[in-house]
Design brief:
The structure is a homodimer of 255-residue chains. The first copy, chain A, is α+β, with helices and mostly antiparallel strands and 255 residues long. The first copy, chain A, is 46% helix and 18% strand. Chain A has ten helices and ten strands. In chain A, the strands form three sheets. Chain A has a four-stranded antiparallel sheet. In chain A, helix 6 packs across helix 8, helix 6 packs across helix 9 and helix 7 crosses helix 8. The interface between A and B is large, with 51 and 51 residues. The first copy, chain A, binds a DNA duplex (30 and 30 nucleotides) through helix 8.
DNA sequence: CGCATCATTGAAGCCCTTCAAGACTTGTGG
DNA sequence: CCACAAGTCTTGAAGGGCTTCAATGATGCG
């Protein structure tokens, strides 16, 4: 039986919350919020709610509209991802999250989170780690946009989405994003995005498909991108890192 | 009497560590490390030391060398800034920090930090906050590089440096960075950086000066940049935020 | 005084953008 | 079930912002 919270459970496990006890204590704090259509905001810029949001199903993005009306997408979010938990620490955050497909979302009230964090320090720690991971993605995006021409830039972006979808246990053969979405994330015009995607198709990497990027030659894509996914800190790295904490001990891990 | 740790104290206060008791407990953990010349690394990529570094005096940058040999600068660091405290949480971080002027640095051993963090939860909290602040700068840099043409892009970059230098109590009339440094941070060629700086001089905003960017018309610079510094979360914003925590309570603040 | 770093200038050209229009797909209401 | 609208994808043409290459002028330091 597949439950709607499974991707979230998987995500929390990847963040170091692996005990059944912790998960049983945390999951009931989730309150189902509803479904949201593509194009609508899941979290609005400037709002300061007393809760944070979890994306149970669907694809979304963290973005900002610039002063000249353009949209810069910082990161994508998929099933199981935390949307705006930085708001738990920094309530006046300017972050906005938009749905890129039909999304199912749930919320956690900050006061519940706070109580749980006091009981389970691993939780505070997982949230912190999640925030650091996002910062790592920001840095990679900076390198991508600042230094790489369109072809490797787009290839890198697609590689990241594949790896993250796979790590979340989702289908990664077709990335659920439009060319417009990718263009706003890569800081390229949609016209040039379209032409470069056609180049990737001629290279045998992508297939023609409407609504979504279909990858047909994964290895060649990674080769073009020269993709180095270490910045994503996947579970195998997490192991090393948990081992380190085990030897060192950590105030946030102490009961 | 001006001490070499004054900028650091100021920085810690801005991060919410305002009690004398906490500061008296934390400062002795600092061990003087030495002076480092421009061009040398303060923190090397890939290293996993058991300590973190503080920049007591000088200017530095967090950067990465890309696969094609270019340097992307993520953020600048000034007197009093924490260099690599993310290493405390994520030891395998790939961050590298280079000195951009002659720098004085000190270190804190992680085991000392850990003991202090257990006694003073405000410390954990300040470090977390510092990391979130850096992530906020990354996002702004993404908007800057992804969406703005050279002139406002460079203007924005300079504005940020002025504000941060002022917030640290340092002289902000001349930004202690070369055109090469700025170019690597703005993801522009040095040639184009030079030409755009000349444009800013013709606009009466900058003065001709070797080694350093001299700002002579601050207001006009901010106007050109349309600078909105809220992302820097300056002390006045911190106040609001501390007040929020006061009303809400927070597990990391509980003893 | 010579060397290294930094700043400057000119010329050529390409990557990418903008504008504009058309084809295709999807969803919705009559 | 069709028609229309909205969103997505595609294509062509023109142009400009920025890069690269290459060389020269400044500045400062040992």
């Amino acid at each position: 039986m597949v439950r709607v919270v499974d991707p979230l459970v998987r995500r929390l496990r990847n963040l170091g919350l692996d005990s059944e006890e912790e998960l049983r204590a945390i999951l009931p704090l989730l309150k189902f919020k509803g479904r949201i259509n593509r194009g609508e905001d899941i979290v609005q810029a400037g709002s300061s709610p007393h809760y944070s949001t979890v994306l149970l199903e669907g694809a979304a993005c963290r973005y900002k509209i610039t002063e000249n009306g353009r949209r810069q997408i910082f990161t994508f979010r998929y099933s199981g991802d935390l949307c705006d938990f930085s708001r738990y620490m920094l309530p006046e955050s300017d972050e906005a999250i938009a749905a890129l497909s039909e999304c199912t979302v749930a919320i956690v009230r900050h006061e519940d989170l706070q109580r749980a964090a006091a009981l389970y320090p691993n939780l505070s720690f997982a949230l912190w780690r999640d925030a650091m991971l996002e910062a790592s993605i920001f840095r990679e995006r900076l390198v991508n946009i600042g230094q790489r021409p369109a072809l490797p830039r787009i290839a890198n972006l697609i590689c990241e989405q594949m790896i993250r979808l796979e790590a979340a246990g989702l289908d990664a053969s077709t990335i659920p994003l439009t060319q417009v979405d990718l263009a706003d994330a890569a800081a390229l015009s949609t016209v040039h995005m379209n032409r470069t995607i056609q180049d990737l198709r001629e290279l045998g990497v992508l297939a023609k498909s409407t609504r979504g990027i279909e990858v047909v030659h994964r290895d060649r894509l990674f080769e073009i991108a020269k993709f180095d996914g270490r910045y994503l800190n996947l579970p195998q790295h997490t192991m090393k890192w948990m081992a380190f904490l085990g030897t060192q001990g950590h105030p946030l891990l102490a009961a």
